[in-house]
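Researcher: For the record, we're logging two predictions in this thread. I'll number them. Prediction 1 follows.
Model: Prediction 1, sequence and structure:
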Amino acid sequence: MTTTANVPSWAGVLASISLVLIAAFVTWRERLGITRDLLVAAARAFVQLLAVGALLLVVFERGGMVAAFAWLTVMVVVGAFVAGRRARGLPDAVRVAGAAIGVGTGATMGVLLAFQVVALEPEVVIPVGGMVVSTAMATTAVTLSRTRDAAREQRAAVEARLSLGLTSHDSFAPVRRSSVRLALVPAVDTTKVVGLISLPGAMTGLILAGVDPLEAIRYQIVVMYMLLAAAALASLVASRLAESALFDDGSRLVDLQADSVAG
C-alpha cells in the first residue's frame, strides 16, 4: 500500500460544499424550517476547524505536553457546559457534568498513557483525548437529562420508597440504573457491530492515510475500548453526583418544577 496520505485538496473541500447545498435544498424543499440552521452550522464548522487547525500547529510545534493537557482541560470545561445545558433544571448540572467528564477522561487517558498504549506526544494526546472527552460528554448529557426527567416523573415512587424506610441511595437506585443503562446503549451497540455495519472513523482515517488494515484494526480496537470505558465511567459518576444533588441534607428529594426542566 502507498504511504502517501489520501487527503482531499482545498479544491476538493470547496467541491464538498455542494453536498451541503444539496442538503439545504432538500430541507428547504420539504419546508422543515432548519435550512438556515444547517447552513450556519456548516459555516461555523468550516471556520472553527480552520481555527483549531491553526492552533494545533502552534501547540504541536511549540506548546509541548503542557499545552496539550491544557487543551484537554479546556475541552472538558466546554463539554461540562454543553452537557450541563442539556440537563437544565438539575441542581449543579454544570459542576456535576464537569466532574463526570473529568473523571471519565482522566481515568481513561491515565490508563492509556501509563501502559504506553498511546504515545505521550501532543500529536497523539490531543486527538485521542478529544475522542474521549466527546464520548464522555455525550454520555453524561444523556445520563443527566434522563435522571432529571425521571426524578420528576417518578417522584411519587421515590418518595414511597423513602417512606418505607429505604435510604435515599436505595430509593433512587431504579432511576439511577435506568438512566445509566439508557446512556450506555449507543456505546454498547456501536461496540457490538463495529466493522460489520461501518468502518469507524479512526480505522477509516488510518486506511485512507495508507496504513496497513491490520495495523489500523489494532488502533481501532484500542479506540473502541477506551470510548466504552470513558462512557461507562462518566455515566456512573454523573448518575451518582446527580443523585446527591437531588436530595437535601434531610434525604428529601428536591422539587423539580416542570417549567424548570423544559427545553
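Researcher: Logged. Prediction 2.
Model: Prediction 2, sequence and structure:
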Amino acid sequence: MVLANKRIVLGVSGSIAAYKGADLASKLVQSGAIVDVIMTKAAMEFVTPLTFRAITHRPVVTDWYDSSSELSIQHVQLAVEANLLLVAPATADIIAKLALGIADDPLCGTALATQAPLVIAPAMDAHMYNNPATAENVAKLKERGAVFVGPGHGRMASGLVGYGRLSETPEIIAAVRQVLGKHGDLAGKHVVVSAGPTEEPIDPVRVITNRSSGKMGFAIGEAARDRGAKVTIIAGPVSVPYPLGVEIVPVHTALEMRDAVLTSIRTCDVLIMTAAVADYRPVTAVERKIKKEDMSSLTIELTKNPDIISEAKGDFVKVGFAAETEDLLRNAQTKLQQKDMDLIVANDVTAPNSGFNVDTNKVTILERSGEMLDLPLMTKEEVAHKLLDRVAMLLTHRAKRPAKATAL
C-alpha cells in the first residue's frame, strides 16, 4: 500500500545483474508504483530498453537528449517528480560517480538534481566491492543519507565467492517501502508484535503446537515498518520467511515468548499480540524420544501456560487477537475486558479463506470504548493497515492527554 502511486525512478547500470532489474521493476509496478527507468549505456549491453518499457508501460531514458521523449528535460523532470531514486544494480563506477557528484549521464544527472531519498543496491566483483576506494565512496554516500541494500554474499559470474551479489528483489523492495514510510504516522514509535505458534516439547522429537503460520503478525510488522515505526517481532517457530527491516526475536515455547514480550515492552509504544500461544505445556519434557513400541497408550500431564497479554502492563496501546470458532463477538468482548486491552481483533478461524495459513482474513475490530469495525474479507496486509489506523488514532489521543501532576 505504501507504494501505491509513488513515483520511483529506477536506475539500472552496467552489471551482469542488470537482468534482475526487470524483475524488480515488475514487482514495483505490481505493488502500484509508477516506475520510470533510466539505463546507462553499459546496462544496455546486458538488457534492452524494450524489456523495461514492456514492464513499466513507460518510456525508458537512455540518452540526455531524446527528441521523442514526453519529458522536456528528462533528468530535471524525473528528479522533481520522483518520490525515490533507486539504483539497482549499482556498479562500482556508478557508486563512485554518485559519491563525487559527477553528472555525465542521465542517471547521475538525475541523482544530482533530485531531492528524493536515494536507495542503492550494489552489484560488482567481490574484490571491487572490498577495495578501499569503493568503501570510501559507500561511506561518503551513507553520510549524505543514502540507504544501501546489500550486497549479498555468494558465488558471482566470475566464479569468485564473496560479497558483491545484488540483493534479492524482496529485500530491495522492503528497503524502498521502509524509506518511503520513514515519516509515516508511526514514526518514532516502537511497535512490538508477537507472531506464530509456540511449541511445547513432549520429548526431543514431539511437541504440542497449533496451526498458526505467523502471516498475520508478519503483515502487521511490515505495515508498521512501512509507517515509520521501529518494529520488534517476537516470532514463534514459523515456516514463512521473516519480514525484512525489522528486529526478529525468535522463540519456541510460551515461557520464552513471555520473557521476550515482558523485556520488549519496557520501551514500546504499542504491543500487538497475534501469536497463538499454547494454553498448556507438559509438566515434564522427557529427555529421550518416547518409543512407540514401549507403550500401548500415552498420558501426558499438562499445566497451564501464563496469560502473556494479561501480564503485559504499562503505558502503551495493547492489542490482542481472538481466534474463535463460535460466539465470536461475545468471546472477544469478554477477552477485551478481562485482559485490559485497548483493542481486540476477532476472527472466526473456521470461515472460508480466513484465519490460519491463508493470505486473507475476515475480522472485526472491537475497541475498549465500545466502537466496533466489521471488515470484509481482505488481504492480511490490508487488515494490518486498518488495525494500525485505529492504533495511530489511539496514540494521538494519548499524546493529547493532560500530563499528570507531580507531587511536591
